[in-house]
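Work Package 3 committed the consortium to producing structural models of liganded targets before the mid-term review. Because experimental data for this complex are still outstanding, the team generated a predictive model from sequence and the ligand definition alone, so that downstream docking and mutagenesis planning could proceed in parallel. The input record is reproduced below exactly as it was submitted to the modelling pipeline, together with the SMILES string for adenosine-5'-triphosphate.
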Amino acid sequence: MSLKAETVSWSAGGRLIVDAVDLEVMPQEFLGIIGPNGSGKTSLISLLAGIRPPKSGIVSLEGHPLAKSTRRDIAQRIALVEQQAETTERITARQAVELGRTPHLGALSPWSGRDTDIVARALDHVGMSDFADRMWHTLSGGERQRLHIARALAQQPQILLLDEPTNHLDIHHQIGLLELVRGQPLTVVAALHDLNHAAVFCDRIAVMDRGRIVALGTPTEILTEERILAVFGVAATVEHDEDGSCFVRYRRPRPKLHLISDTMKRHDHAR
Ligand SMILES: Nc1ncnc2c1ncn2[C@@H]1O[C@H](COP(=O)(O)OP(=O)(O)OP(=O)(O)O)[C@@H](O)[C@H]1O
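The resulting structure, written out as tokens with the ligand in place, is given here.
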């Protein structure tokens, strides 16, 4: 299922936050969005999810504008895992995942054994079956994060939008979660901070900078030393493996010369 943004803009606080973005996400691809803090990744993902209407431009799903779809229609096809998704409800882990079935339930389609199975499978996928009866407020940040993913999988969407899905996870669960998501028959758009995760898991990467998409392509096309310096202001070495994949190694900034001489003066003075 293809998701398309055409000249989509969004403003807040009198400032243009998403600036005329054109983006077409291909069926079943894993598209990463990278960019500095505040560059507009979360805002763009909210627009793609249809939870915030664009100021101008159109977001469409299979050629049908989201603005003309009901929330329920959208939720049957698009699942969103937000960065700071929290719940204050006193619910169990299983009940949190059951919420993913809401868009599929109705007077003519009440909760059934099939829904129970889907929820059990989603819990199993993220390795949280043993936590199913635990109360939400007793769970760690990483456990909650995995349940948010399980809730999104239980929603059985065609498109999964993830805003920094690995930010609470240890490295084992970061890799496991991205691998799990990548293995699903889903179109995925994920805002990622870790450039090496983007290099390993994404089919394509979009780079956001000050509200615009400034580059879009395969990981090796996008993750160049020049671009990492230009967009993030960080010196890096990009290594290429024989299989065509790339790996980013960051370099420690060189201390400024005047700082070195100040330090030396302080040492001299101390002696
Ligand atoms: N409702 C709002 N009102 C005012 N400014 C907003 C609003 N929402 C977002 N912004 C601003 O828009 C800019 C982009 O925010 P956004 O959260 O989309 O960036 P991001 O790339 O996801 O950042 P991060 O990497 O820090 O999560 C930021 O400067 C933010 O302060």
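Reviewers should note the following from the model. The domain at 3-219 is CATH 3.40.50.300 (Rossmann fold). These observations will guide the Year 2 experiments.
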